[in-house]
Sequence to fold (259 residues):
Amino acid sequence: MSNKEITGRFLTAVMKQDTAQMRELANADYIQHNPFIPTGLEPFIGMLPILKAHGTAAENVRMFEDGNYVFMHNIWRNAEPFGADEMVSFDIIRLDENGKVAEHWDALTPLVKETASGRSQTDGPSIAKDTDKTAGNKALAQNMIEDILMGKNPEKIADYISSAQYDQHNPGIKDGLAGIVEAVQYLTAQNNMFKYTKIHKVLGEGNFVLTVSEGEWNGKSQVFYDLFRFENGKAVEHWDVIQEIPADGLANENGMFGF
Fold:
């Protein structure tokens, strides 16, 4: 099985409460970075009755593979245990050298019905292409975060983002370069602009690249998951999840990063 197939089977086993399959696919010392779920496979299995009681279910929208990492874009229904009735998440799974599920990271945000662009938080293309350009697109995404969102060279925004097309899935930002400029002006006027301080991981498959960054917003520490789709050397589409990094009520001490 490919790493994608193993990950897909593991997600299905979780949803079906198939603990035998989960134990077959994952390590006993499964490392958990969701701050509200205990680390280890058996403690995770111990939480499954809570999901069953709520009827919590996941819909995988897109899945990509980068070496021993698989990254997914998911919708969670009946997701009150995670904070809202419907949630959108990015999930990352690391598989070990034996093809076992070994580690998990994620970030979740409530699903928003009405967005500034009219697009949902998850719609759009889902199949990677241009796999020979993976390394170049990963470098583009990292440089874009550093120059634009970390403020090294913000004037270079048009070098990274297409002026012809930029489909925006952040629920509060409109399409296009103009939408970004408008959002930046508004947030800056409110003294509440996103502050990216560190990139922790860059994963890609072909023209899709996911960056995991740390920073601040609304006066609180945040994790930023940004998924970009590239065409001809420029970003033409963007999805994201922003989640506050909690300091209290933690179920494990692994932190939300630690790649």
Notes: The first strand starts at residue 26 and ends at 32. The longest helix spans residues 134-149. The mean pLDDT is 97. The helical segments are 3-15, 19-25, 41-46, 48-54, 134-149, 157-160, 176-189.
